[in-house]
Design goal:
Elements (H helix, E strand, L loop, with lengths): L1 H45 L6 H28 L17 H18 L1 H14 L24 H27 L4 H14 L4 H21 L3 H22 L10 H39 L14 H9 L2 H19 L7
Helix pairs in contact: 1-2, 1-5, 1-10, 1-11, 2-5, 3-7, 3-8, 3-9, 4-7, 5-6, 5-7, 5-8, 6-7, 7-8, 8-9
């Protein structure tokens, strides 16, 4: 009985260390959203300088990825102690070949897209029920599904999405959180760490898709022992979404009902480009799913080391999610995810 109490205490300590940086992130983000933009805008106006939408977006993500997220990661570093997890241990040459990493990146994109399709349909149903039209870009932490009006004006989205997000998000979620959870068992760490990566995006369609992608990213990190392959996988995953938005934003079918022929001809180059993109993406998704099914059948790669802790999976899961910080953050993420999916922007909750 005493051993069980000590084990439960150890699991909750690991759990709280996992979600503390997420709590710090949320608090700092809310404070930033409430005060910083207005302060900077007023300061710039005093020098007769005004920001366009692209500059404002870029400024927002600079604060998120270069200030707030590093502070959250530093919190994790402080709580992990001298013998804790170190990001620099993942700054090494991958132990798997480029071909292996490419294959699992394709699987990550394909399988996560398919597995996230059902929740996307559920969110559409919720929006129909409540008569709303909230999109993933309305979410507190949405970094992928953002409309790009024109490429020169898109730097405010392209730079954080293709550079900041892969580097800093992988450093936190794979380099720190996933490695922190490994003592609880490799498969347990993959599932839990991926789930929190999904919940962190805070809307139902993105939550599920990114959760599954996060699990694949954890697996890639586990097998390669390097942070670089999941960073590149994250980059290509975001690139796929950005390309879709860039192409789609250049198609204007608003006059199709009144003048279908001319409207189609005016948009024909981008319509054809979008069709080519959709075909290529479909091929990528199908290839990824087929590869993943083959891996499941072979089961060669899908063998995981179990936890050294003497506790059942049910008790381990209960202990993990009843840790105070983890319980608070899990409830918060779920509630905000549902509200963001139905109504849009609910940062103040």
């Amino acid at each position: 009985m005493e051993n069980l109490k000590e084990t439960t205490k150890q699991i909750r300590k690991i759990s709280n260390r996992t979600t503390l940086p997420l709590l710090v992130y949320v608090v700092l983000y809310i404070l930033f959203t409430a005060f910083v933009p207005e302060l900077i805008t007023d300061l710039l106006r005093s020098f007769d300088v005004s920001l366009n939408t692209s500059a404002e977006t870029l400024m927002r993500y600079i604060f998120i990825y270069l200030i707030i997220l590093p502070l959250a990661m530093f919190t994790f570093r402080l709580t992990s102690g001298k013998s804790g997890v170190r990001i620099k241990s993942g700054l090494r040459k991958p132990e798997k070949s480029f071909g292996w990493c490419a294959k699992w990146t394709i699987m990550a994109i394909g399988a996560s897209t398919i597995l996230g399709a059902v929740p996307a349909l559920i969110s559409m149903g919720l929006q129909m029920i409540f008569g709303t039209s909230a999109s993933p870009s309305d979410s507190l932490f949405a970094t992928q599904s953002m409309t790009v009006i024109a490429l020169p004006k898109a730097l405010g989205v392209l730079i954080p999405t293709l550079i900041f997000a892969p580097i800093f998000e992988e450093s936190l979620f794979r380099g720190q959180i996933f490695k922190n959870n490994l003592p609880l068992g490799e498969l347990f760490a993959i599932i839990v760490s991926g789930a929190f990566f999904g919940l962190w995006h805070q809307n139902l369609p993105q939550t599920c898709t990114t959760a599954f992608f996060g699990m694949f990213a954890c697996f890639i990190y586990l097998r390669t022992k390097s942070i670089f392959p999941p960073v590149l996988a994250h980059f290509f995953n975001n690139l796929v979404v950005i390309l879709r938005d860039i192409i789609a934003s250049n198609i204007d079918m608003s006059n199709f009902k009144f003048d279908p022929i001319n409207t189609t001809l005016e948009n024909l180059p981008f319509i054809l480009l979008f069709m080519f993109y959709a075909t290529a993406l479909t091929g990528l998704i199908v290839t990824g799913v087929v590869f993943f099914i083959m891996e499941i059948v072979k089961r060669k790669e899908l063998k995981f080391e179990k936890s050294t802790l003497e506790i059942s999976n049910k008790r381990k899961l209960l202990a993990f999610f009843t840790a105070p910080i983890t319980l608070i953050m899990t409830i918060y993420f779920i509630v905000i995810s549902v509200l963001n999916t139905i109504f849009g922007y609910f940062w103040f909750l």
